[in-house]
Amino acid sequence: MAHIKRLARISPWQAGKLFAVIYFAMSLVFVVPLGIVSTFMPMHHFLRFGLVVLVPFLYALLALVLVPLGCWIYNVAASLVGGLEVSISDEGGA
Question: Is residue 17 within a helix (H) or strand (E), and if so which, with residue range?
């Protein structure tokens, strides 16, 4: 049996911390191959260091700032028109 629930509010700071960690991990998927490819390109060592080491941290920092902003915007919009409706169903026998 499905139950309809409404997502009324998202905690901006908690979402920001969570997505900062997720974005950091996701950035490694792109940065590691980019770092390997950059070893074969004529590039200053500082730029290579910046690509491989600093980009994941900058990506996480952007998430830490922008995700709470997005949550705040969601919370304002949800207070005006209602939050997202989510359908939750019970799995298995109870």
Answer: helix 12-38
pLDDT per residue over 20-39, tens digit each? 999 999 988 888 887 777 77
Helix (H, G, I), strand (E, B) or coil at 37: helix
- Helix or strand or coil: residue 57? helix
CA trace torsion 39, 41, 45, 47 (10° rounding) = -110
C-alpha–C-alpha distance, residues 6 and 64, integer Å: 25
Q: Do residues 51 and 34 lie in contact, with contact meaning Cβ atoms separated by under 8 Å? A: yes
- Indicate the burial class of 91 (C-beta count within 10 angstroms; 0-12, 13-18, 19 or more): exposed
Half-sphere exposure (Cβ direction) of 41: Cα atoms closer than 13 Å: 12
Predicted confidence (pLDDT) at residue 90 exceeds the cutoff of 90: no
